[in-house]
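> forwarded from #structure-qc
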């Protein structure tokens, strides 16, 4: 069982325990278009889902890079499983912003409670006595088949008018809805990450008490741990970006293994003996290792700043954004290089390189690594501040 005050060395054995279970059910996940119950149960029972749960509620509250390495290692086995883990476990960052009464209700059945949901503001929240009534339909809700709660994002309306915050932005409420108050819809027919179950769900006029609501980007964390001061968007972005690192790593490893066994058609020399292949793999390694080192270095610096009692300065947040968007660009390039070098072997459905290419291409479409961050971060270097997409 995973405990508290954990280093990567302490978590590593637990991750290794989970890997063969993910591998065993990987094909089932692709076919069923969702994370198998056996894999979810293993994530929960090993304690990995509580890595970012606040200590106040029995969690481990590990450093950012420990969480990232967990995501990366799981994603090397199956990108969809790594993606779901990252989403379910990172949901604890949201719960850290709830009033204590709400967080204790959410974690009533233990610190490994998964918290899937959707950041898309596709709902309407109407203030009523004691809370809100919320309705909407939310997309891309990875892992939403599992657990007791769904976290929804909704615009707060006073009558027909959106409620505005002090800086002129609309109030975006994060509301924790009971799973049985939602309808899970069958919409996840995707290019990649097919096993993630990132489908739509809908909620119709559900009551959510005030203690299970906070206002996104306005309400501060309600727990003491330094981790949560990093911000919701930065923590989610670091977690999800790391999925692509794991997939790209697996793609290089799979190609090298293939090349050692393959002699191309009409050739008298094995693929692994060709200097061109050696150079291409070395180039891919340099790209991936550089992107990974940049991302982990930034995560370490963020954690150091938080532990020193400081908030994350804009200069460091700019580097975080660049590290994420850079990795988001590099990883699909690496996977595509490995696929191209393998000839016709991986063009068939079910080949690992085919799946890696689909999975990393799908992951790279997420807002966390969107190319828009090049522009919105680049403007910082011209004295224009950090923009949002």
């Amino acid at each position: 069982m995973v405990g508290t005050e954990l280093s990567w060395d302490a978590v590593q054995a637990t991750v290794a325990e989970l890997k063969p279970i993910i591998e065993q059910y990987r094909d089932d996940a692709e076919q069923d278009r969702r994370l198998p119950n056996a894999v979810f149960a293993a994530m929960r029972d090993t304690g990995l889902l509580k890595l970012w749960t606040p200590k106040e509620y029995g969690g481990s509250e590990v450093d950012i890079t420990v969480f990232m390495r967990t995501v990366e290692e799981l994603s090397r086995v199956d990108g969809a499983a790594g993606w779901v883990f990252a989403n379910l476990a990172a949901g604890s960052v949201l719960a850290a912003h709830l009033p204590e009464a709400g967080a204790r209700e959410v974690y009533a059945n233990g610190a490994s409670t998964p918290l899937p949901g959707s950041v898309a503001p596709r709902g309407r929240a109407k203030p009523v006595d004691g809370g809100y009534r919320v309705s909407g339909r939310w997309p891309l809700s990875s892992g939403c088949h599992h657990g007791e709660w769904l976290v929804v994002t909704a615009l707060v309306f006073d009558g027909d008018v959106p409620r505005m915050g002090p800086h002129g932005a609309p109030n975006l409420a994060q509301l924790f809805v009971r799973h049985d108050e939602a309808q899970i819809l069958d919409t996840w027919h995707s290019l990649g990450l097919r096993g993630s179950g990132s489908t739509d769900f809908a909620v119709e006029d559900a009551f959510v008490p005030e203690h299970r609501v906070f206002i996104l980007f306005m309400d501060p964390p309600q727990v003491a741990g330094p981790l949560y001061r990093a911000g919701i968007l930065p923590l989610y972005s670091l977690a999800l970006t790391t999925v692509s690192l794991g997939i790209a790593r697996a793609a290089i490893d799979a190609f090298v293994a293939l090349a050692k066994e393959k002699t191309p058609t009409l050739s008298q020399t094995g693929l692994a003996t060709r200097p061109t292949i050696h150079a291409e793999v070395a180039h891919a390694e340099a790209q991936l290792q550089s992107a990974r080192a940049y991302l982990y270095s930034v995560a370490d610096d963020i954690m150091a700043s938080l532990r020193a009692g400081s908030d994350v300065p804009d200069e460091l947040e700019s580097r975080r954004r660049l590290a994420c968007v850079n990795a988001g660009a590099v990883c699909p390039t690496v996977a595509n290089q490995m696929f191209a070098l393998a000839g016709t072997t991986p063009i068939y459905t079910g080949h690992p390189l085919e799946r890696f290419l689909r999975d990393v291409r799908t992951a790279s479409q997420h807002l966390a690594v969107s190319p828009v961050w090049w522009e919105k971060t680049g403007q910082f270097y011209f004295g224009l501040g950090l923009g949002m997409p």
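QC bot note: Strands lie at 123-128, 131-141, 149-158, 161-162, 172-178, 182-184, 199-209, 213-215. The first strand starts at residue 123 and ends at 128.
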